[in-house]
Specification:
The chain is built from 1 helix and no strands. The chain is mostly helical.
Length: about 60
């Protein structure tokens, strides 16, 4: 009885554990990618605003 329970538990939890570990890795990568994209966009906006301010000062 105990062997059957352990065998069933290993068959049920093993793939589930592997799937959770894979999901955690992918989720972490996607989150980092989104944060990096947001930082790049913010930097581009800041550069655009700086160039706009500098061009207005030169135009005066």
């Amino acid at each position: 009885m105990t062997v059957a329970v352990l065998d069933f538990t290993a068959k049920a939890i093993g793939p589930l554990g592997a799937a959770l570990i894979a999901w955690a890795g992918v989720s972490h990568t996607v989150l980092n990618s989104r944060l990096q994209d947001t930082a790049k966009e913010w930097h581009q906006d800041l550069r655009w605003a700086s160039e706009l301010c500098a061009s207005e000062k030169l135009a005066r």
